[in-house]
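Per reviewer request, we include the raw input and output of the structure prediction for the construct analysed in the revised manuscript.
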Amino acid sequence: MTTDEQQHGERPSTVSVRKLLKVLGSPRLAAALINAQVHLRGKAKVPLSVRLEGRIILTGDGEVEFGDGVSLVGNVVPIEIVCHKGARISIGDHTFINYGSSISAHKHIKIGRRCLLGHYLTLFDNNEHGVERRDVPTPSAPIMIGDRVWIGSCVIILPGVSIGDHAAVGAGSVVTKNIPPNCLAVGNPARVLRELPAN
């Protein structure tokens, strides 16, 4: 049994029927589920519960994995995901990614469960080239985002950054250093403004 089933005391078959009825009762939800399978199947690991409204551009030869219930909204501007050969991108269960977001991995980007990622977010684990030697690629450094993290619109997260569980990053911030759990960070460069109540 899953956690949801245990909390509600329901058998797996009851939960499945309830979920099926929810999908059949909502044409928009059904369309988003089908859209995700059509555009992502064969390019990434995509559970049947992943939803996609609008468009996504997914390229590269790396490994991309979506968790259960991930919600992608690319209806205004497509979401871009680039996973280079040998790289890995994993997006946790029930995470929401808004339109215009751009995620590029040369090594590894991990986004936790139940995160809310604002539109025009930029996540790059590599700076693509150096300042002085633009013909030489720079080293990659993984980006790790914990569970239940909220990231505002137009945030840029640079290589090697970790963001702790239950943290929040204000709109327009440039995250250059790690952010501890249960903290609000804002600015360019982003700095911890205050602690948030532990959930």
